[in-house]
Design brief:
This protein is mainly alpha-helical. It folds into 3 domains: about 60 residues; about 40 residues; about 45 residues, no CATH class. The chain is built from 6 helices and 2 strands; from the N terminus they run H-H-H-H-H-H-E-E. A two-stranded antiparallel sheet has the order 1-2. Helix 3 crosses helix 4. The longest helix is centred in the middle third of the chain and has 20 residues. It starts with a helix and ends with a strand.
């Protein structure tokens, strides 16, 4: 067994023992651990995490026992992953969008900047590459609805 596993087991065993011996002390320790983890994030994220934790705590209070809370948390997780606007749906949309963008993108051959020592430049290829770069630059800086669009 490795060190990390031992440390995790010790931590969980300590919490389990605390829960069995003193519910109030366990609850205080649980809150302290959660707050310690939340405080590691930027302030904006901390606010979201605290609100989410509050939601979890309120739902947990409605449960009659730990097993019911466990099932409730499982159902919440499944809803966040498989439900409407869940993680799976978001990932599918991201993949679909990326595939559509890839399929409609036009790729151009660009000559490498570094040339082998002693290699001669082909003036025709150099001119073509310059024209393509200029056309792409102009396309990306055309006015669009009264606003300038850059980089496309």
């Amino acid at each position: 067994m490795n060190r990390a596993t031992n440390k995790t087991d010790d931590f969980l065993n300590r919490l389990e023992l605390l829960h069995e011996l003193d519910d109030e002390a366990f609850e205080q320790e649980r809150k302290r651990i959660i707050e310690e983890e939340i405080s590691k994030y930027p302030p904006k994220t901390q606010d979201k995490l605290r609100k989410f934790q509050w939601t979890l705590d309120m739902k947990r209070k409605k449960c009659k026992n730990s097993l019911e809370a466990c099932f409730m948390f499982h159902d919440m997780l499944m809803e966040h992953v498989y439900g409407e606007n869940g993680l799976l749906e978001s990932l599918d949309l991201l993949a679909k969008t990326a595939n559509e963008l890839f399929a409609t993108s036009k790729f151009i051959d660009v000559e490498p900047k570094a040339k082998p020592i002693g290699a001669k430049e082909d003036p025709v290829q150099k001119t073509k590459a310059t024209v393509v770069r200029l056309a792409n630059f102009r396309k990306g800086h055309q006015a669009h609805d009264g606003k300038r669009v850059s980089g496309r």
